[in-house]
Automatic annotation (TrEMBL):
It comes from the Bacteria. Keywords: Decarboxylase, Lyase, Pyridoxal phosphate. CDD domains: DOPA_deC_like. Its cofactor is pyridoxal 5'-phosphate. It catalyses: L-glutamate + H(+) = 4-aminobutanoate + CO2. This is Glutamate decarboxylase.
Amino acid sequence: MTVRHPRERHGHSRDLQINPIFSREPLTVPRYALPERQMEPDTAYQIVHDELMLDGNARQNLATFVSTWAEPQARRLMDECAEKNMIDKDEYPQTAELESRCVHMLARLWHAEDPRHVIGCSTTGSSEAAMLGGLALKRRWQHRRRAEGASTARPNLVMGVNVQICWEKFADYFEVEPRYVPMEGDRYHLTPDKAVELCDENTIGVVAVLGSTFDGSYEPVAGIAAALDDLQARTGLDIPVHVDAASGGMIAPFLDPDLVWDFRLPRVASINTSGHKYGLVMPGVGWALWRDQDALPEDLVFHVNYLGGDMPTFALNFSRPGAQVVAQYYTFLRLGFEGYRRVQQTCRDVATRLAAKIAELGPFELITDGSELPVFAFRVRQDIDRFSVFDVSAALRERGWLVPAYTFPENRTDLAVLRIVVRNGFSHDLADLLLDDLRRVLPRLEDQRAPRHSAADCAGFSHGTEPKKVRRGVHA
């Protein structure tokens, strides 16, 4: 997003007038230039604090998947580690050790055949982790093609159009043709048959999403892997799967243990997840794991010596805080398997109950019900023409609730929905308060003659459901 200076937007700029209640100097400070002199720390704090009151209440943000609540002990540890740079593994060896322990815990959680030798790392979030997974797929494909004496000029990546926007960025930044499977009818994500249709000798991999941002549904990872097994048997094409488990990677192991989606499938080469979503850590950490050393080409890995040992690293980012990694280890230690299961089950219970109650109101139809990710989407019934999902979103925002409304992508742009993400900290009590407010605004909306808001009013509020730029060409 290009940020314009306020002068360009409003035609003028004015300095910030400080309320005399501060009883301190200065009384005027510039908004868009460095002040000439320093000020008292309490004055600077109060200025910033007061402006931030205009932000929304993060706990009422039902658009974001990112954690908005953490225990005081986790926050204390993060404060204690705020100055630690995660990349300096030789200076902060114990933080690096905690990172390694988290990787091994995730490897066991995701059924790696040999968890001790799984390659993995922390990242700034699941988007960086996904890009690392994509880079490994591309480099692995390049090595194989060169060994065969074949061209490496036209790599492509197959995925559903419902993937998170980071995959479009990956394709653009790293010169890979994105092959999107569009939505069609009641099919809102990637299916095995459609994935295989787009694969060829230039396909570096298939991305399967465990928890679509559009509606919270799981893609059939095992079915996609089986279809690719069949493709290899018929054609010899050996195409790996990367599982984007940004949210589902920390839900399915605890609530859906019989669902086979992870390293139990030999075709799954790598998995990413977000520590700051259902990993239950405050924003700033993701994880990427590869099933073995063959899945992550050695020439992508940098080696750091710490404590006389070797620490392999793979990242797009360099300096970043170690606080979130420490908080992830704390949360793993604090909750354990049973604690995570209880937290995630509560989220799912809240989501399914809230979805059912919304369906009972009358004007709405469920697209999903929160029984996979604790996330669900719903629409206004087609026979209702007095208000739209965008009107509902705007009305709820009057009470502080941030519930995104958006249209689905290409081939289903006729479908406009609202989506609710239930996270740790969004209780049954808060869900009831949301329901009360929804009931309160419905009579007013039903008295309208026609919808008053459109998709343009919610354009910056889609949280991962942005339309993809479907490009038909290929990159050199």
